Give the backbone structure.
Amino acid sequence: MSVSIPDGLVILTFDDGVKSQRTFAAPILRECGFNATFYITEGLNFLTDKTRYLTWEEVRELHDLGFEIGNHTRQHKSVANQSREELLSDIRHIDWQCNHYGIPIPTTFCYPGYTNTPEAVEMLKERGFKFARRGTAPEYPYDREGGRGPAYNPGEHDPLFIPTTGASGPHWNFDDFLWSLDQAQNGCATVLTFHGVPDLDHPWVHTEPAFFERCMQYLTDNGHSVIALRDLTNYIAMES
Ligand SMILES: [Zn+2]
């Protein structure tokens, strides 16, 4: 069977387990018939602020709604500052929590703060992750308030080093969103990264709810397929 990425394919991801992802974004995605990956960490204020972060029960609800739950590590530390043992332990903790709450063990990973190292990539491979998502760098300059990045090209990018094509934040506008969609051609996919909608804790990755609705409406009106990262296995040839 030949597999390939069709024009206009969008991979939708949400980082950090922000409450508004369950209360605001998820219902819109369900209405649109879109899938997405939610990357969960117990770092940031996940353990202390349940008004702004999901509970594990709510993470389970996202799974029950058909969304993918991905591993964003226990502490949300830069992998560049962690020993192999500490990173492995942080990954296993999220796996354990998923298992405890009846959520499948994640098959995809997201680098906290977008930082990555060759050693971490190697470790993710050993652990058996199929895909991992990073930010827009090094191909595009990293702007912590959002910006453009490369499309995912399976012929060019390691599946454990998948870039963000559009990082939502105050510096990323509707034209940037349209630009990110234009990159989804010639076998490449657009990868979108959102945080909270809204994100009250981290204003530099905040997305206005009305802006998010406008983006999702555009994807609907223009017939885009919107998938979770794990679903890439349907579109690319995987090494066994
Ligand atoms: Zn994060």
